Structure formats: structure tokens, C-alpha cells
Amino acid sequence: MLSRRQFLAASAAAAALPLSGHRVWSAASLELGAARLDTLSDGMLMLPGDFILGGMPEAELAGIIARHGLSRDQLTPPCNVTLLRDGTNTILFDVGAGPDFQPSAGKLGEALDALGVTVEDITHVLFTHAHPDHLWGLLDEFDEPLFPNAEFMIGAAEMDYWMDPDTVASIGEARATFAIGAQRRLEVIADQVRRLEEGEEALPGIVARLTPGHTPGHMGFEIAAGGDPVMVVGDAIGNHHVAFEQPGWASGSDQDQDLAAATRLALLDRLAGERMRLVGFHLPDGGIGRAERAGSAYRFIADI
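Request: output the structure for the sequence above.
Response:
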């Protein structure tokens, strides 16, 4: 398990790195009938390699690292926030990291500005889960919801977990700040958040799918617009390398590693079998693409 000291050291290292002067804010898009889906860059994370790769079989892992040009010591996954506009609703799936997590992330406001979308335009926010890079952009500098006109939705099990006062003590030292930060933010919207169950329609054409393991109540969202369904998978498929090539391996980024692996295997089997597009929060090239079978494993094929 990655220690809190190691995680904070990686965050400090991120603060010392210059950010790129050129950003593609709307990294990828899809036309879904009358609706449009864009993925917006919230920046990237700077993670010690062991946060994801720790405990994996090193001999087999070495080949994956080489094939994908990764560093074993540090990973820099992108953060793709999904924006869906259907002419009536303007929907965000997650809200990014905000200013308090890592300096390389929390750039969603700039991405929205680039598309001419204001925080007042957002009608709904659907959370896949409550980790910092997905939730901590919820509040403004006055600890009020940054999206004043939005209805908020989150999985019922996810809300229960982070609002449980015992979670801070049981989650482990490395993630204690995750729990404190989640509870502080979710308390602000507790009286106005809608709690979703598996199979529930969040909005017309958007169905919540329970995909637990990364967190206890992690949700994906199946969008059935324009006749070509798309699954917003959040962190249920958390990267384009080991998650596809060895989906059954336990990953240090998942809170319940065995459950997360089982969820990942089932999800990839469905996505590949149905040729359903997916949107991944930490997948490259904007995160929109497909899972394709490659022998007994999978590969991510980006829509670029």
C-alpha cells in the first residue's frame, strides 16, 4: 500500500513541474443524434508508479511498461471530464480536482471557458465516485457549490460510504485525506443530492450502472442517445495499459482490489462484445474509444 508520505511527495513533485503552454481543452467529441459529447481536460495527475503498479508481477509488467512507453517510477494519467449537451440539458460527469489536490490538475474552468460554457449553464452533475480528482472541483472559494443551477446525483452506496464517520479511520492512512475531503464537500450538497441505484434512469436516456471496487459505490453511466450507446466508465477502467492487458490483476489504485478486478473483467467483456464506445476518465487521446479483444486480453482503441 502506498503511504501517505509517498503520495504527498508525488504531489509536491508535480508542483515543481511546469505545465504545458498548449492545451487541447476539448480533447475529443462525439455526435450522438441531437446531442453532443465532449471530453474536457482537467489537466493530469502525477502519481508514483506503485500507486497503480505496486504488487504486480514485475516480469510481465516490464513488457507492458515497455510497450506503452511508461515510467515505472511515475505515471501521468490525463483527467477527462465528460460534458453532454442535448439542447435542453448541459450535463457534467464528475467535476475534476479543483485547486486543492494537485497543481497539474483542476483546470476544468479553463476548459469550459474555451467552449463558451459557464458554470451557470450546467443543469446536472453526475458523479462516478468521490475521489479527489472527480469530486474536489465541486465547491467555489466560499465553499458553495460551483455549479449553482445544477442537480447533483451520485450512487447511493457511494454517498453512504463517504458520509459514514467511520470511513476516515478505516480507509487507511494514505487515503485519509480523500475521506476528509469527500465528506466536507458532500456535506454541502447532502440535502439536494439525488442518490442513484443500479439500473436507475438518472435522466432520459442515461442509466446508472453500479461498477464497484475502485470505490464501494462507483457508478458508470450508459448513455443511449442517437442509437449508438456510450458508457462513461469513470475509474472502473482506470488506465490504457495494465487495465486492458491484464484486467484481472489487482491494482493499488482500487480500494477493493478483487472486486474492482471482477468488475473490470465483466465490463470489458461487455464493452468489447457489444462494440460499445466508452469514455474513460484517465484514458489517453481524450478518453473516447472502444475496447477490442486481443487474444485473452484487450486493447484500447481511441477515437482520434
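The longest helix spans residues 257-274.
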